[in-house]
Amino acid sequence: MEKTSERVQLVVHEQGWAEVILNRPHRKNAITGPLGLDLASVMRQAEQNPLVRVILLKGAGGSFCSGLDLKEFNAEPQPEWLADFQHIWRGAHRALFESTKPIVGCLQRYAINGGAALALACDLLIVGEESFLQVGEVQIGMAAPYNLAWLSLRHSEGRVAQTALVGDRIYGRQLQDMGIAYRSVDEAQTQAVAAELCGRLAGYPEGGLQQIKAGLRSHLTHNADQWFDQFTGAVSVGNRPQPSSMPR
After folding, report:
1. Bond into 77 cis (ω within 30)
2. Could you give the CA distance from residue 34 to residue 39 in angstroms, rounded to a whole number?
3. For 111-149, how does the pLDDT look when each residue is reduced to its tens digit (9 = 90+)?
4. Residue 186 has pLDDT above 60, yes or no
5. Which homologous superfamily is 8-232 in?
6. Among 14, 21, 146, 165, which is most buried by a count of CB atoms within 10 Å?
């Protein structure tokens, strides 16, 4: 294991793939500024490691990510990183967007709001049948810019509307039927299936994975920041998340 921080870990396997692990299980892997900084750093490390050909993004403790850590965002006094959070979070998504290596997501239990955006950033998503993804910002009067950005990159306008305009939980089998998840599997097998897929892809002849991923993006005329700017431009940078009844 290459333990790069307490909040995000990098584990490189000799078979040619790596795990990037959100590691705040005591807070259901909820997002803070430091976690965003570490996620960007660890993703860059995995990207630059010549031994790594596939990246698995997962959460520690049997769950993926519950979204923003509202306790930390609304703490008094304000955390030092709060004023810079929009820049920090952009950096994390930029690192995901710019990865030339396939990213497999392992969605266990839930991926909510900001956590859903991380799951949607994955090229291939393995989800437990009883797990759910929820782009629920609309239900609390907030925009969902990074969710919209990733959904729009991969899906039709109708599919984006189904996911983001209603804001309901979408469970494993439905995620597969919608084409958002690659596979929905028995809950207990989620990690094993995701790891098996990573090992399988990493065993393919060298070059093909990155060439195909580059080809998937060949239609884009935008770099990462230009792409995300289309979706974040209308969002006020200074807004602080407010407590809500969203599931954590």
Report:
1. yes
2. 9
3. 999 999 999 999 999 999 999 999 999 999 999 999 999
4. yes
5. 2-enoyl-CoA Hydratase; Chain A, domain 1 (3.90.226.10)
6. 146
Given CA atoms 182, 185, 188, 189 in this order, what sign does their dihedral have?
negative
Tracing tokens 């009844």 back to the chain, one arrives at 245
Q: How far apart are CA 101 and CA 211, in angstroms?
A: 9
Task: Parse the chain into domains and list their residue ranges.
Answer: 8-232
Task: Return the percent helix, strand and coil in the chain, to nearest 5.
Answer: 45, 15, 40
Q: Which residues have a Cβ under 8 Å from the Cβ of 100 and sit 6 or more positions away? A: 47, 210, 213, 214
Tokens of 77: 């006094």
* Cα 66 to Cα 209: distance, rounded to the nearest angstrom: 30
For the record, the structure tokens of 50 come out as: 């010549």
Structure tokens at 63: 């769950």
What is the C-alpha to C-alpha distance for residues 187 and 207, in angstroms, rounded to an integer? Answer: 33
Burial 41-70 (b: 16+ CB within 10 A, else e): bbbebbbeeeebbbbbbbbbbebbbbbbbb
Determine the number of helices (DSSP H) and then strands (DSSP E) in the chain: 10, 9
Tokens of 201: 């892809």
